[in-house]
Design a protein that fits this description.
Blueprint lengths: L2 H10 L1 H15 L13 E4 L4 H6 L1 H11 L4 E6 L3 H7 L7 E4 L4 H18 L3 E4 L5 H9 L4 E6 L14 E4 L6 H12 L27 H10 L12 E5 L13 H14 L4 E4 L6 H11 L4 E3 L6 H10 L2 E5 L2 H5 L6 E6 L4 H4 L7 E5 L22 H4 L3 H25 L8
Parallel strand pairs: 1-2, 1-4, 2-3, 4-5, 5-6, 7-8, 7-10, 8-9, 10-11, 11-12
Helix pairs in contact: 2-7, 4-8, 9-12, 10-11, 10-16
């Protein structure tokens, strides 16, 4: 659904529903309380944003340590299910989904899933959706006795009632992966402190489950990597992802700069190839970028790969240049180096995992970041100067330096390889 429509629905319907359910909750609090027991079955709610599920890997790992893999569940929109299956942390049968294609489907699947959640006896819900009202409502209606999520307390953050048993103060200085992990730590304790939590923040951990493609998947992707003449692309390979999701369109670097970047990289090395990627609805846009670069060594595979094939492509390539969007987070699951262009959001919170293979470019203008959990990730900005401030020169130099370092590592590995063995 349209992100603006989702925001309006969340506001127009979410505010009165949260208020009404808060009245119900406070009235119920006058009744004798149930004896608190440790969590037995934990449900994560993270409906939107594919890449955020990668950032949540550490939190899911901690939940598995606490209650066992078979007792951890995830509630997402249906289009995000393949990534959770690929991560493999949660059993496939524990992934609950809502179709987001039509409003009726959303309503029907929500009711169906709430019934399933109650039947499963889930006692703990972890709301990963920051200040979204829909997820807070779902957490309350799940009937779980433990519900952890953000609460605005005395701040000017979005109102979403008082529906959580474990109310967490928003900290805009924690990386999102630390915040997700913190929610799990909070729900494992008792909600005695206000606000929560009064404990050290979890250590930042860049580790993420790694994707290993099959030989068949690598072969399928290699078949896609052919020039218009049918020749197999070879040499260093740079992927350009010119688009970003419609959730925050301000994150897009100008398309003409991606075109100029591709041209410069091709001129820098006659062996180098450029591959354009994109979502299923971006096929024509990807082909237009490849045509504008105007080289037989530049092709588009936008809308021609599924999730596993896209990750296999990352495994075969050297560098991904992308806006701050889902592909930047997915790339952390592969050996590729990633150059990520940040603007209206801050890398302090959203830097992709992957450790030294992630390279961030951010102008750090005085108005940035203008998008945060406190404004429902919606900015009034009418011109993304923060993205325009990232020059083609800066991105080109970064990519070339990353390619040089990768070549050095490859040569070093070859020197250390035993006699008769080939370097990976």
């Amino acid at each position: 659904m349209n992100p603006q429509l989702v925001r309006r629905i969340d506001s127009w319907l979410g505010v009165p529903i949260c208020w009404l359910l808060t009245v119900v909750r406070r009235a119920a609090a006058l009744l004798p309380r149930r004896v608190s027991v440790p969590p037995k079955r934990i449900l994560f709610i993270k409906l939107v944003e594919l890449g955020a599920n990668v950032q949540a890997a550490g939190a899911v790992k901690r939940a598995i340590q606490a209650v066992g893999r078979e007792n951890v569940y995830f509630w997402v929109f249906a289009e995000n299910r393949p990534l959770l299956e690929l991560l493999g942390q949660v059993p496939a049968e524990n992934i609950l989904t809502i179709r987001s294609s039509r409003l009726f489907a959303v309503a029907w699947d929500t009711i169906r899933t709430l019934i399933a959640v109650r039947r499963l006896g889930i006692d703990t819900v972890v709301d990963l959706e920051f200040f979204a009202r829909a997820s807070a409502i779902l957490a309350y209606l799940s009937s779980a006795s433990r519900r952890v999520g953000l609460h605005r307390f005395g701040s000017a953050g979005p109102y979403r009632g008082d529906l959580m048993t474990h109310r967490v103060q928003y900290n805009p200085y924690l990386h999102v992966s630390q915040y997700y992990r913190l929610l799990v730590e909070v729900v494992l304790g008792e909600p005695d402190d206000v606000p929560m939590p009064k404990c050290p923040a979890p250590q930042f951990d860049a580790a993420v489950p790694q994707f290993v493609p099959s030989a068949a998947e690598l072969l399928e992707v290699r078949e896609l990597l052919r020039s218009p003449s049918g020749d197999q692309l070879s040499g260093p390979m740079v992927i350009l992802n010119p688009n970003a999701s419609d959730i925050v369109p301000l994150r897009k670097w100008p398309i003409d700069r991606f075109v100029e970047l591709g041209r410069r990289l091709l001129r820098s090395d006659p062996r180098l190839s450029i591959v354009i990627t994109g979502a299923p609805d971006e096929r024509s846009a990807g082909e237009a970028v490849a045509a504008a670069i105007a080289s037989p060594r530049a092709i588009s595979v936008a809308a021609r790969t599924n999730l596993r094939q896209l990750l296999a492509l990352y495994c075969l390539s050297d560098v991904l240049v992308t806006n701050d969007s889902g592909p930047a987070q997915l790339a952390a699951m592969t050996p590729i180096d990633t150059v990520v262009l940040f603007g209206p959001e801050t890398p302090q919170l959203w830097r992709p995992l992957g450790g030294p293979r992630t390279h961030v470019l951010w102008a750090g203008l005085a108005c940035s970041p203008c998008v945060s959990a406190l404004n429902f990730r919606f900015s009034c900005c009418n011109q993304p100067r923060c993205m325009e401030a990232i020059s083609v020169d800066a991105v080109t130099q970064t990519v070339l330096e990353v390619l040089r370092l990768r070549q050095q590592r490859h040569c070093h590995s070859a020197e250390l390889a035993p006699a008769g063995a080939s370097a990976a």
